[in-house]
Amino acid sequence: MQSQFFAAINQLCDEKNISKEIVIETIESALRAAFRKDYGNKEQEIDVNLDENSGVTTVYLVKDVVKKVEYEDREIDEKDAKKYNKKAKVGDQVKIDVTPTNYGRIAAQAAKQVVIQKIQDAERDVLYDTFKNRENELINAIVHRVDGTNVYVNLDNKTTTNIPYEHQIPGEKYYSGQRIKLYLDKVIKTTKGPQLIISRTHSGLVRKLLELEIPEIKSGIVEIKSISRDPGVRCKVAVTSNDEKIDPIGSCVGQKGIRVQNIMDELNGERIDIIQWSDEMEEYIKTALAPAKTTVIKLDKKVKRAKVYVQPDQRPLAIGKQGQNVRLASILTGWEIDILDISDFEGKPTKEAKPKVENVADLDLDKKLIKSLTAANLALVEQLKGLTKKDLAEIDGIDEDGAKTVFDALKKVA
């Protein structure tokens, strides 16, 4: 029976990847608790020895040797102590064998739940220690199963966890056995064990994939300065070279675009724009808004806000569908960007027949339309000039009727 018991311990250690010493210590702790509950009391100091060779469990009551006993549960006089240890003297401790008959079977039943809990805690600690040092790394995973919006994956050490819905690429289909790459954002300790925050939408995933695919980035010759991302749709990456002889954009794109294409394939076809970083903010913003062509850029460095004036035919391109292009450019550069018509550029003649309405919030529109326009980074009336009803209807949250309402409201303040 005992040999089977220790065989089970060894198997448990191998399967759960925890040390045998932790398991033995846990079992001994559980046995001490079981003895106090059924045979002793919480005031007693109990020691349990689980002999790994013989498999025999021995329970000891530990007492301090004193001249005068005041606490019988913890103290013993020198005369009585010599019955257990002939060399015992005041100041020593003696161990008294108090192992009950059939204690092994009784204690095993009483300690079962405690042992299970302790083993789970030890297993969680191992999991936490394994992944804590791997934060901000790329993790290889295999999709284990898909249950609605819940996607469960096996990580590279066979740990099973799930990808939160908000960290899944919109529109991406997952299936059992699929190999994917994930970004380990954080490892958090909770009462239910370590929680792994893994993501397919984090900008760090793009950075790690670029480092994996492009040797010049991994070696530090080409440096990634900034990343802005609309997961599953579009991503802008600003790069620069620390070697004048190396073209950073060419290095990232690769021959016939093969390097960046491999990353796009991993990200479910997400478009990746590689642009040249510049410490000249005007030039940087101009590049970030590509493929739109800008005419004039005015910077307010105090509040980090840029007014970008473009030709009427370039405004829809600069803003992008649902404000995507200007939003990504704003995140990439760290500046608020307002797209304005060139006719509104300072010094150009403008009609002043009516008081000028600057903010979308001041238009005669309901709150839902104003909220949709603001979310698309179109908070200024000037930004809406030149947009057709079709352009407005493409903004998230605005249908054809809403587009007509906005269009008519703009005509009133034109």
Distance between the termini: 91 Å
Number of helices: 15
Biggest sheet descriptor: 5 strands, antiparallel
Low-confidence stretches: 349-354
Descriptive overview:
- By secondary structure, this protein is an alpha+beta fold.
- Among the domains are: 2-130, N Utilization Substance Protein A, Chain:P, domain 4 (2-Layer Sandwich); 134-201, Nucleic acid-binding proteins (OB fold (Dihydrolipoamide Acetyltransferase, E2P), Beta Barrel), CATH 2.40.50.
- The protein is built from 15 helices and 15 strands.
- A hairpin with a 4-residue loop joins β6 and β7.
- α9 (281-288) packs antiparallel against α11.
- The longest helix is centred in the N-terminal third of the chain and has 30 residues, at 103-132.
- It is elongated, with a radius of gyration of 35 Å.
- The protein starts with a helix and ends with a helix.
- Mean pLDDT is 84; it is low at 349-354.
